[in-house]
Design brief:
about 200 residues; alpha+beta; Glutaredoxin; 7-stranded mixed β-sheet; two-stranded antiparallel ribbon; 5 helices; 9 strands
Amino acid sequence: MKALFLSLIMALLWAGAPIKEGYEVGDTAADFKLKNVDGKMVSLGDYKNAKGFIVIFDCNTCPYSKAYNERIIALNKKYASVGYPVVAINSNDPSKSSGDSFEEMVRVAKEKGYEFPYLVDESQTVAKSFGATNTPHVFVLTKDLKVAYIGAIDDSARKAEAVTKKYVETAVDELLAGKKVSTSKTKAIGCGIKWKSV
């Protein structure tokens, strides 16, 4: 049986089939330690009083990220005080997107008045471990780092005024009320993460 399993894996590799990376709803995420725009290292374990986290893979340059910028700030304003802070992560390779350099991250965070960490995932290992593909791409985690929701912030990527379903807000509200998340996965709409050349 073991030999059959190994031969199946080898066959998939030989066929060029991608090996799945990333978390599914219900998985437990690994903590990480990344550099914030203030130069300090940040991990989820630093948040002793958190009830959970709104982890958002984001960037400076994507039109979708720009369209969601105020909504991300609003999510943190609404939920950080009740135990669900936003933690934003930029995993773009700055050699492919110069506007996503660490210096530009610092500038954007200051200009926008971010009150949440904006972390640089220089090695891109955190994005890969989560299975993030787009900017923005959201992972709502519980206190014990269980993945409760994956996907889009809401159902209107371009226009905030056209939103009819607030996926992240609904998920966090349900978790805060001790309920099961009713919509636990949606499609993240945004620019693809700019991966380093292998």
